[in-house]
TrEMBL record:
Organism: Dioszegia hungarica
Protein name: Huntingtin interacting protein
Gene Ontology molecular function: histone methyltransferase activity
Membrane spanning stretches: none
Coiled-coil parts of chain: none
Location of this chain's protein in the cell: Chromosome; Nucleus
InterPro entries: AWS_dom (IPR006560), Post-SET_dom (IPR003616), SET2_Histone-Lys_MeTrsfase (IPR050777), SET_dom (IPR001214), SET_dom_sf (IPR046341)
Pfam family, one: AWS
GO biological process: methylation
Keyword terms: Chromosome, Methyltransferase, Nucleus, S-adenosyl-L-methionine, Transferase
Length: 183
């Protein structure tokens, strides 16, 4: 009667409720793209290109944004990196599973502008869809600590250079910055 909430067993186990949830429209454990997210703003950061910023305070543990894009084979993504994306050297991708990535370059949302940070304020979580008959996932970002309005959102990329075996200079500016990303 009260609907699903933070204590919902499905949420605790990292499953979203499916269309057969007994709470119906009262379900608080809906697909990530249906969840309320805080207001965010894309802005130019300088040496790191564009970034995504909080426009109001966000509390630790709050859902921030889902990561959308086209789920493609890793081999297809490598081909795109070497052909379509080579000139720009910007990659908007996140690992989906061992053999696939979410390519957010053309079909992504503003989450693709979240930059790497050695002292990150976001945690990436993969959430399974329950009761839909297929093994699918959604990927979202949750606040790993309190985030102040105006602060840039970032997560640790655990970087792997998709297109080259070269390292990329890290420009996050964190006191614990590792200096370079990649191999």
């Amino acid at each position: 009667e009260s609907g699903c909430n933070e204590n919902c067993d499905n949420r605790i186990m990292h499953y979203t409720c499916g269309k057969n949830c007994p709470a119906g429209e009262m379900c608080g454990n809906k697909s990530l793209w249906k969840r309320k997210q805080p207001p965010l703003k894309v802005a130019f950061t300088g040496s790191r290109g564009f970034g995504l910023f909080a426009t109001q305070d966000i509390s630790e543990g709050d859902f921030v944004i889902d990561y959308r894009g086209e789920v493609i084979a890793l081999s297809t993504f490598y081909e795109r990196c070497n052909a379509e994306y080579a000139a720009s050297k910007n990659y908007y991708a996140l690992a989906y599973d061992q053999d696939e990535v979410i390519d957010a370059a053309a079909k992504g949302n503003e989450a693709r502008f979240i930059n790497h940070g050695c002292q990150s304020n976001l945690e990436v979580r993969k959430v399974s869809t329950l009761g839909e008959g297929v093994e699918e996932f959604e990927v979202g970002m949750w606040a790993s600590r309190d985030i102040a309005a105006g602060e840039e959102l970032c997560y640790d990329y655990n970087f792997d250079s998709f297109a080259a075996a070269t390292a990329t200079e890290c420009r996050c500016g964190a006191p614990n910055c590792i200096g370079y990303l990649g191999r």
